[in-house]
Amino acid sequence: MSRSVCVCTSCPASIMSDIYESAANSLGLFSSPCLTKVELRLTCKGISDRDALSKPDPCIVLNMQSHGQWMEVDRTEVIRSCVNPTYSKVFTLDFYFEEVQRLRFELYDINSSHNGLKEADFLGSVECTLGQIISQRKLSKALVRPGGTVGKVIITITAEELTGNDDYIELSFSARKLDDKDFFSKSDPFLEIYRLNDDATLQLVYRTETVMNNLNPVWKTFKVSLNSLCSGDHERKLQCTVWDWDSNGKHDYIGEFEATFKEMRGAIDGRQVQWPCINPKYKVKKKNYKNSGIVILNQCKIIKMHSFLDYIMGGCQIQFTVAIDFTASNGDPRNSCSLHYIHPYQPNEYLKALVAVGEICQDYDSDKMFPAFGFGARIPPDYKVSHDFAVNFNEDNPECAGIQGVVEAYQACLPKLQLYGPTNIAPIIQKVANSASQEVHTKEAMQYFILLILTDGVITDMADTREAIVQASHLPMSVIIVGVGNADFSDMQMLDGDDGILRSPKGEPVLRDIVQFVPFRNFKHASPAALAKSVLAEVPNQVVDYYNSKGIKPKVPSEYQSSRPFGP
């Protein structure tokens, strides 16, 4: 990628090519060679009780350092009333040999009535690198408490490389006639699946949710990697245990059974596979004991996982759309203090962010035509406020030729607008979602939409925006929001959801995580490539997650015949 984009009114392209050289040569962000994928599993020992009356409800949040900033990657489930938790949640990370990938595991005691971190007690953290975990396979470290003292809590992180077979398995379990362990109600059963390792130790693979007051539970369908379930060995023994959940953490044992993935595969064609759930003590003590219930596998699906490059090489195009904030809080563009001020030699933050991200995306779009919209301004001819107007003022064709075309349209429109407000972004999300919804009907991996929103302030239509994002999470699209200027963007973190899951005002959760928010000031003195890498790092996984969840396979490159020639 040798082109440069000129974003100033009077500067030679050579100056700009220096400024954007690092964006233009960003080491092929989407295709940087991930050495391997790694699964991390966590256990904790020795968490002290909150007080005499209650045990802790621990949760671990994984953060990764990116350009000096700690960013949340994922978090475990909350395990109620437990001082020595073993987490079912598996963290899957890309391992890059050539990078130092710094990780921080933060331990929280969650308020029992609220799953978020706002009211949680921060108990401390452990820091290490991914390389350290991988080289040791199992790393145990003492928790560093707030204030810097070393505590008694030990966090153990186990790493397993995903080699060769990265297929996933979808399993649906139920049970019938389980033993009743409660006096005043029926049992509250949950199922745990353990893998028997080569060294005869047991590794927790998955723990289902608890189904309350039910001896015939139907557990939610879940997905695990084949590697995680049985290390790719279809004959490996799996120990499956059914428990009756108790709020004090002392769960009652109902029974267990042994299985293999080879047996589970019997449910692939819709047939049920059944195992008697046995309590060995009852078997010895009770004369006519048959079992403590029957556990049923209703469905087993093998899901072939494809990579981002599989989809791109199969002809999937990244459709890149830009939305720019033209609200009055940006300041008068004629004033040098304005965030929209066009400096003769130095691009403003809007242009820097636009070019850094756009330069990457345009390589994955064959026609290099990008729709560009504005919001929050009064526009000619009647100067009514609009939240989704074409920056080139051509509503029938808002597309600009290349990132250079977006830059020129932006500069040309500024003198014609009246900056106004409020900061509403739901309309532009819905506009791109309408285009993405057309793609859904094709049932092919041909177009994935990325909306880049550049804004200087906290959005005013948060409820509508949350609703729009939840609906968009069902579509082939991702939303990147870059906060420009020095406003307090803390409310924007809400778009990631306080409990890790963004919900609509009605409580509907996002189907998948599609929003990335980054304040530009964190990258003010970094290269454009650093900003691009931070905001786009999640996109390949989001593309893959969407198409894999829909069961849409990439086209084989030989099948794909583009009707449009690739641009320069």
From TrEMBL:
Instruction: Tell me which InterPro entries the record gives.
Output: C2_dom (IPR000008), C2_domain_sf (IPR035892), C2B_Copine (IPR037768), Copine (IPR045052), Copine_C (IPR010734), VWF_A (IPR002035), vWFA_dom_sf (IPR036465)
The record's GO CC annotations read: plasma membrane
Q: Which GO terms describe its molecular function?
A: calcium-dependent phospholipid binding; metal ion binding
- SUPFAM superfamilies, alphabetically? C2 domain (Calcium/lipid-binding domain, CaLB) (SSF49562), vWA-like (SSF53300)
Per the UniProt record, one Pfam family is Copine
Q: Which UniProt keywords apply?
A: Calcium, Metal-binding, Repeat
Per the record, the domain of life is Eukaryota
An example Gene Ontology biological process? cellular response to calcium ion
* Boundaries of every C2 domain copy: 18-143, 149-276
Q: Does the keyword Metal-binding apply?
A: yes
Q: What Gene3D superfamilies has UniProt attached to this entry?
A: C2 domain, von Willebrand factor, type A domain
Q: What family is this protein classified in?
A: Belongs to the copine family.
The protein depicted here goes by the name: Copine 4
Q: Which gene encodes it?
A: CPNE4
